[in-house]
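Lab meeting prep.
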Amino acid sequence: MDKRAVPLGSVVSPVVVAFLWEGAVAAGLLRPAYLPPPSRLVPHLVRLLAGGDLWSHMAVTMERLGMSFALAVLPAVALGLCLGMWRGLRLALEPILTSLYAIPKIALLPLIMLVLGVGERALIFTATLTGFLQMTVSTMGGVLGVERTVLEAGRNYGATGWRLFRYVLLPSALPEIFTGMRIGLGLTLVLVIAVELTAAQVGLGAFLWTAGQTLSVQNLFAGFVVIGALGLILTYGLERLGDRLMPWRERGRDGFFV
């Protein structure tokens, strides 16, 4: 079986949910004014995409997401590796990271705006901070999770210094690093939408805000569908990249029970 094929359950389950939703509206269990059925939402979404307005909001959100993730990933991975390898640095910085991790980043937006001003820099920095902290913590955990026997085996084969890092430590921590990147990408998207809801005029978050203020339920659901689709595509894309870089990881991806 081709591992790149889409599992049947991943296709069937959304279709089943759509049919149940449509049936519940038809039976009067759900009010179409608040939960319009898929038979209405799909044509409305097609019209929005054909009109081009939704594409412009999507493009702005994707630009912000790309900048935020790009600014976060390299510093986060580098810092996480350093924290995992050097105990003194970890003891010094871990309390700060843990404290910042617990604070909702959207709550920092007013402070960030005071420092950076009202504009794109504040929005992007707020979204960047979320992904940065998640990827830093995950990378550090990946390094700390490398078994000592693996490191000792590498040393016994002559791997020391850079060679030990390059051929033993980094490959062993890489699955956890990619897990952190995948979660960090999703959280960054969430924060981009949140800051757009709060302090932006364009973007999918601003589109949702306008739809809510004008009581346009179909626009709201269209925005939800687009955001969910973006999250799904980006997450699976990053996961496939991880599969290419770490082919050994695929062996355990089906879980214990098939």
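Slide two material, second protein:
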Amino acid sequence: MGLGLEEYSKFLVENGVKTLAVANFEEAIILRNSGIESEILMLTPVVQKKELQLLIENDITITLGSFEEFEFAEKLAKENEKVINAHIKIDTGFGRYGFLTVEKEIILEVLKKCQNINITRNVYTFFKTY
């Protein structure tokens, strides 16, 4: 894929990179299957149960950008008796993906309700400048 997903990722990990971010489910699984043990963060939402199941089994950090995604992931993690890692994505104006900035209370509700999801210390966004 592209520049050599597996080869380049291994090079990065060997040189101190601790977390790799990927755009989709397939890339995450390819990296894990290639022997990479570092944290792998998938930046896009997960909507299919089969995909989320494989991400959980392969210890991939997911991105949560809506309350519905949180509920979906929390339920499946509980069914698997696992705690999964997740990052919070906030949409600051691009309209791409993520919790809206006006949804602060919903974000706090998600954080309080986490039982089988570990919200890592990371939150990310793309800032829109005018």
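Talking points for slide two:
The chain has five helices and six strands.
The CA atoms of residues 10 and 36 lie 7 Å apart.
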